[in-house]
Q: What sequence folds into this?
């Protein structure tokens, strides 16, 4: 990477493949950053010791993969807001295709070593269920999306529940801020004129 590559604008999103990559990257970022930053904050001065512990690495790897489908669902709701805020669009059909795209993103990954086969299959089933629920309400504002996901996400923190303290609101706020940022980036990058109604037809 060159010195000024960091300041280059990311390319426009004009097709399903680019949208899938965007959803994948941001879903991983949302959940992983939250897990690591929370653990680092709770450990305080002992963060280096914690992050060097093999038991912690195993725990956080398990949490990361369990949380990844939640990240996919959250970013999918952000995409729903951006793609279907115009009432003239056929949202039901668009959501069906968006869901197929998100499930195809999940299926890119082989079963992680940290997760057993029944759990990995159950996580996919739960992701599919959550994606179907998106269509039961109008598109949400990015700041309102975490309300549905914060409880299961917070429970996956790789810190013993007795040590979590009163950190639930802080984690909720983190998700609100980061999803607003995801919404802003997607709104700026997606080319809705090129990204026609049929663009997701081959998803999945």
A:
């Amino acid at each position: 990477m060159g010195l000024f590559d960091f300041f280059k604008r990311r390319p426009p999103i004009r097709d399903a493949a680019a949208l899938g990559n965007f959803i994948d990257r941001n879903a991983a970022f949302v959940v992983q950053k939250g897990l690591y930053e929370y653990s680092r904050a709770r450990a305080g001065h002992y963060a280096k010791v914690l992050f060097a512990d093999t038991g912690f690495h195993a725990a956080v790897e398990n949490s990361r993969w369990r949380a990844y489908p939640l990240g996919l669902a959250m970013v999918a709701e952000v995409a729903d807001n951006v793609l279907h805020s115009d009432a003239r669009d056929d949202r039901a059909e668009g959501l069906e295709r968006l869901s197929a795209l998100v499930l195809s993103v999940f299926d890119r990954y082989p079963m992680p070593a940290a997760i057993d086969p029944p759990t990995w299959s159950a996580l996919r089933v739960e992701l599919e269920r959550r994606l179907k629920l998106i269509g039961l309400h109008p598109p949400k504002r990015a700041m309102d999306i975490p309300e549905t996901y914060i409880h299961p996400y917070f429970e996956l923190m790789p810190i013993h529940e007795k040590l979590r303290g009163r950190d639930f609101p802080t984690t909720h706020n983190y998700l609100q801020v980061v999803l607003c940022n995801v919404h802003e980036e997607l709104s700026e990058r997606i080319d809705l004129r090129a990204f026609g109604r049929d663009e997701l037809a081959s998803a999945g």
